Amino acid sequence: MAWDFRTTLDSRHGPIAFWTIGSGPAVLLVHGWEGTHADLDAFVAPLLARGMSAVALDLPAHGESAGTTATLTECAETVAALGTRIAALAGAIAHSAGCPSTAIALERGLQAQRVALIATPERYDRYVRWFAGEAGVDGDALLATMRARGLHAGSLVLPETAARLDVPALIVHSTDDRTCDVRGARAVAAAWRGSTFLEVDGLGHSRILRDPAVVERVVEFVTGRAEK
Q1: pTM (predicted TM-score)
Q2: Farthest-apart Cα atoms in the chain, separation
Q3: What gap in Å lies between CA 197 and CA 79, rounded to an integer?
Q4: Which residues contact 137 (CB under 8 A, 6 or more apart)?
Q5: In what order do the strands lie in the sheet with 53-57?
Q6: CB count, 10 Å around CB of 113?
Q7: Are 76 and 86 in contact (CB under 8 A)?
Q8: Which candidate, 97, 96, 98, places its Cα nearest to that of 82?
């Protein structure tokens, strides 16, 4: 994807890289753990075709952004700061760990008219244990390290955050997602007042970002072209 501009946002972690393209109302794209802004490139052309602009960042310690470590709350802080920089967001599209980061940012004042959460985890501690297993690291040890840094992953439960939000939301999840169980996404959708839940099959945790039907449905929702 050929983005128009690469810019940086000053943060306590160092420079945070973000990219923009288009000139219409802005939609923020938030990637997941160990991802980059490019993970959501499939949404850009459809957004531009609808007269929108797109803004995508690399979260702290990811891609071209500064930092060597990052927590979920630090990612949420960065998302909220970028939202303030942009000032008026028509919408936000988030994937995986970018979903709770965006939800927490909304709770802390991020302004967005609509949000779409794709392949969202329900509980951060479960996500950390899955990530540790994939990386060959002891999950309990990783959680203990996080607690030592002041982050109690068990206290970050997305349905509890969702219950305090009233931003129109579309939650999309594939039944065969092995990273984040679909039952967790159902719980998030049940807690988020007025949200719409779209359940698909056969798209896993990452392929879902490139599925044309999912991309179309998400873009329609965040641009206000589809009924909830």
Answers
A1: 0.87
A2: 47
A3: 23
A4: none
A5: 5-9, 16-21, 53-57, 26-30, 89-95, 112-118, 169-174, 196-200
A6: 16
A7: no
A8: 98
CA distance linking residue 75 with residue 33, whole number of Å: 10
Place of tokens 């501009």: 5
**Which residue's structure tokens are 């129109």?**
168
What CA–CA distance (Å, rounded) separates 14 from 9? 8
Report the C-alpha gap between 124 and 160 in whole angstroms. Answer: 12
Full set of structural domains in the chain with CATH: 5-122+157-222 (3.40.50.1820)
What DSSP character marks residue 113?
A: E
Residues of the chain where predicted confidence (pLDDT) is lower than 70: 1-2, 123-156, 225-228
Q: Are 117 and 99 in contact (CB under 8 A)?
A: yes
Q: For residue range 33-74, list pLDDT tens digits in order.
A: 889 999 999 999 999 999 999 999 999 988 899 887 777 788
The rounded distance, in Å, linking the Cα atoms of 110 and 77 is 10
3-state SS, residue 26 = strand
Q: Give the residues across from 150 on adjacent strands.
A: none
